[in-house]
């Protein structure tokens, strides 16, 4: 891992006073890392009109993720030999949940369609080619799934509903919650029950389904506010700061090692990680971004671009509402100095965030997972 040198510090000071404009299509990029949420899925708690199984990728979600692959191909193909991104040029890692695995396959299909020597058959082989998708068991997925087994993180997570912040928030909305519970005959005890219930409404509305008559525009607005705020309670470190390291440490370590060509010279030039909105919340919070007003859409992306020549990291964000909307990205200002830079030396970023980095062994140790891992290995 690099230690920021004098040149890097001068580089940082220079950009604190004046951040230059940057166009990725003109700049040579040595490493590109994409963290993306899966595509549009069915609700968690489907109403009677929903025929799809819970949580599964919908047809519109498949379209979105295929288009995401096409977008990445258009944005980055000029960075590769022959202006073609082949399966050998990319690394795709997915959460073990089916909707993420399916999203990964669709991104790969849009990103690297077979051309020339990569065509392997006269029909299907002209449209699609196999691309490896890597994953591990869900309970071990400390990288991409914030519900993976971490004993200590689970204890911290269980404390959140009893915090004064959450209790006061629930009291503020107590009348609305009780009324909704009576109408729908559901026991909505805490903010997580409400979030799972409202997720159904949000997902159904997103896909054009008619909502129940009791769900007026005003009630939907209030429930959506509760839904959004509940993510801040559970998937940031605002209430339990240690969750930042335990739930993003492995991913942060993977990202910044992947960007570092000295530490990890054999890493793929383009790496894609398919995950969940909760993990993206954790990641953006760990990076220092204010996410109070942020609602993550399906297919939202956080993109890290690294140029060795400039020794600079650029960060981009995409959060497109609809599966057929034009995919765009906005460059983010990295919140590391008063001016909030758009580009910063990699070594400086590594030193800034190093207290969050965890490899899998360290993660197991801090989670208190060691005995559990041994039991699984012995079974």
TrEMBL record:
- GO MF assignments: acid phosphatase activity
Pfam (any one)? His_Phos_2
Catalytic activity, per the record? Answer: a phosphate monoester + H2O = an alcohol + phosphate
UniProt keyword annotation of Signal present: yes
Q: What PROSITE patterns does UniProt report for this protein, alphabetically? A: HIS_ACID_PHOSPHAT_1, HIS_ACID_PHOSPHAT_2
Q: Which InterPro entries match?
A: Acid_Pase_AS, His_Pase_clade-2, His_PPase_superfam, Histidine_acid_phosphatase
Q: Where is the signal peptide?
A: 1-18
Q: Which PANTHER family match?
A: 2,3-BISPHOSPHOGLYCERATE 3-PHOSPHATASE (PTHR11567:SF187), ACID PHOSPHATASE-RELATED (PTHR11567)
Q: What's the protein here called? A: Uncharacterized protein
Q: What is the lineage of its organism?
A: Eukaryota, Metazoa, Ecdysozoa, Arthropoda, Chelicerata
């Amino acid at each position: 891992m690099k230690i920021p040198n004098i040149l890097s510090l001068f580089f940082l000071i220079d950009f604190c006073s004046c951040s230059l404009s940057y166009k990725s299509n003109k700049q040579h990029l040595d490493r590109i890392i994409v963290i993306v949420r899966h595509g549009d899925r069915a609700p968690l708690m489907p109403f009677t009109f929903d025929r799809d199984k819970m949580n599964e990728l919908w047809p519109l979600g498949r379209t979105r993720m295929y288009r995401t692959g096409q977008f990445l191909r258009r944005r980055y193909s000029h960075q590769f030999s022959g202006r073609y991104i082949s399966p050998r040029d990319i690394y795709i890692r997915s959460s073990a949940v089916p909707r993420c695995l399916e999203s990964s396959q669709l991104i790969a299909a849009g990103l690297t369609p077979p051309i020339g020597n990569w065509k392997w058959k006269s029909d299907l082989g002209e449209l699609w080619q196999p691309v490896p998708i890597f994953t591990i068991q869900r309970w071990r997925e400390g990288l991409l799934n914030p519900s993976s087994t971490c004993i200590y993180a689970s204890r911290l997570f269980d404390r959140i509903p009893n915090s004064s912040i959450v209790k006061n928030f629930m009291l503020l909305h107590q009348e609305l919650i009780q009324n909704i519970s009576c109408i729908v005959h559901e026991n909505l005890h805490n903010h997580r029950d409400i979030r799972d219930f409202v997720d159904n409404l949000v997902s159904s509305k997103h896909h054009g389904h008619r909502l129940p008559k009791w769900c007026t525009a005003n009630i939907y607005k209030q429930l959506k506010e509760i839904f959004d705020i509940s993510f801040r309670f559970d998937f940031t470190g605002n209430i339990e700061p240690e969750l930042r390291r335990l739930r993003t440490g492995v991913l942060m370590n993977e990202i910044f090692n992947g960007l570092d060509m000295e530490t990890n010279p054999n890493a793929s030039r383009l790496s894609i990680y398919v995950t969940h909105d909760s993990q993206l919340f954790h990641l953006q919070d760990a990076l220092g971004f204010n996410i109070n007003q942020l609602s993550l859409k399906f297919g939202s992306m956080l993109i890290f671009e690294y140029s060795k020549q400039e020794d600079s990291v650029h960060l981009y964000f995409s959060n497109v509402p609809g599966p057929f909307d034009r995919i765009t990205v906005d460059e983010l200002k990295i919140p590391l100095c008063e001016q909030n830079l758009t580009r910063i030396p990699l070594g400086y970023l590594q030193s800034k965030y190093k207290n969050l980095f965890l490899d899998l062994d360290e993660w197991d140790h801090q989670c208190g997972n060691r005995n559990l891992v041994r039991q699984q290995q012995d079974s």
